[in-house]
Structure formats: structure tokens, C-alpha cells
């Protein structure tokens, strides 16, 4: 091999290496700095043969009883499912000071679960259960938004959390 070919080969390796390092930096930045990550594996719902994912979700507790449940003096559970392009329940009511564990999943594609003005920010993967707990210290009408692109009417996908 002549020297010139060797030089090009080395240059090619260096450029490829730089691309790899660049991608890793972007990945590290988005996952650590921006907090983009998969939800902790709380649980996975699997459909039986011939069963739709939606049917599997609706027969699996706690998704067989959607909505808010009081589980302690200030403790609540709020169970949701997401389906293009809505959240169910569409609206929940909570008292000020409620500590709420949001439990949610998707029955079709990947959706987001973001409550504006709070740090509730989850990704809902089909059949995977996501959980996050938050205490509402201020009264208000909180907008629950889908912040993962999920198709044609993604931008209309929302629900309300009413705290009073
Ligand atoms: Cu659901 Cu975007």
C-alpha cells in the first residue's frame, strides 16, 4: 500500500471516529441534560393471542378502573390510558395538597404525558406502565398534554386536572 492510500485511510477513520463521538455527545446531552429517557419499568401489559392491546389493558388492574382513587388522607392514585388522540379520563378533580400517583399507559402508539406547571413528564409506550407522583400545592386548572408526536391530531391531545 502506498503512503497516500494509507493517509486517506487514516483520515477516513478519524472522520468516522469524530462522527461517533459527536453522536454520543448528542445522545448524552439529550438523555441527561434534557431528561429524555424511557420511564422506569413499572410493568408491561401483554396481549394474549388474538387479543388487542386495548382489550388487554382494560382487563388489567388498575386500568380496569380508570380515574381518581383516594388511598390515604392526602394520597390519591390517578389511572389513565392514552389513545390517539385523547387521554381518559378527560378531566379529574383533586383537592389542594393532594399527593397523586399518576399511573398511565398507551393502547396504541407512543404518547407523552406532561402536566404544564408541574414536573409530571412521562413517556407512554404501548402496553408499558409509567408512574410519577406529584403533590399539587396550588389550586388551578392544569393542562395535561401529549408531547410526543403521535399523528394527525397530536396537537389536540389533552385533558384537564382541576385542583381546588
Ligand atoms: Cu399523543 Cu401526541
From the coordinates shown, what is the CATH architecture of the largest domain? Sandwich
Tertiary shape: elongated
* SSE run: HEHEEEEEEEEEE
Which band does the percent of strand residues land in?
Answer: 35-45%
State the helix count. Answer: 2
How many individual domains? 2
Enumerate the distinct ligands: dinuclear copper ion
Tell me the CATH superfamily of the largest domain.
Cupredoxins -  blue copper proteins
**How much is the average pLDDT?**
92
- How would you characterize the largest beta sheet? 6 strands, mixed
SS-based structural class? alpha+beta
Helix content: 10-25%
State the end-to-end CA separation: 78 Å
Stretches with pLDDT under 50, minimum 5 residues = none
The CATH C-level class name of the largest domain: Mainly Beta
What's the gyration radius in Å? Answer: 22 Å
CATH fold-level label of the largest domain: Immunoglobulin-like
Quantity of strands, as a count: 11
Secondary structure topology:
Elements: H1 3-33, E1 43-44, H2 53-59, E2 67-70, E3 75-83, E4 86-88, E5 91-94, E6 99-106, E7 111-115, E8 121-124, E9 128-135, E10 140-145, E11 158-163
Parallel strand pairs: 3-6, 5-11
Antiparallel strand pairs: 1-9, 2-3, 3-4, 6-9, 7-8, 7-10, 10-11
The structure holds dinuclear copper ion.
Dinuclear copper ion is lined by residues 85, 111-112, 146, 148-150, 154, 157.
Amino acid at each position: 500500500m502506498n503512503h497516500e492510500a494509507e493517509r486517506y485511510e487514516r483520515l477516513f477513520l478519524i472522520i468516522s471516529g469524530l462522527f461517533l463521538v459527536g453522536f454520543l455527545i448528542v445522545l448524552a446531552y439529550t438523555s441527561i441534560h434534557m431528561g429524555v429517557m424511557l420511564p422506569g419499568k413499572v410493568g408491561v401489559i401483554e396481549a394474549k393471542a388474538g387479543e388487542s392491546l386495548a382489550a388487554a389493558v382494560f382487563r388489567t388492574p388498575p386500568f380496569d378502573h380508570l380515574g381518581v382513587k383516594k388511598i390515604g388522607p392526602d394520597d390519591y392514585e390517578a389511572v389513565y390510558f392514552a389513545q390517539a388522540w385523547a387521554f381518559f379520563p378527560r378531566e379529574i378533580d383533586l383537592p389542594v395538597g393532594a399527593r397523586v400517583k399518576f399511573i398511565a399507559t398507551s393502547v396504541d402508539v407512543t404518547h407523552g404525558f406532561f402536566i404544564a406547571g408541574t414536573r409530571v413528564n412521562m413517556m407512554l409506550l404501548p402496553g408499558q406502565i409509567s408512574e410519577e407522583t406529584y403533590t399539587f400545592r396550588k389550586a388551578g386548572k392544569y393542562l395535561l398534554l401529549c408531547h410526543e408526536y403521535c399523528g394527525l391530531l397530536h396537537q389536540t391531545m389533552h385533558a384537564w386536572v382541576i385542583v381546588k
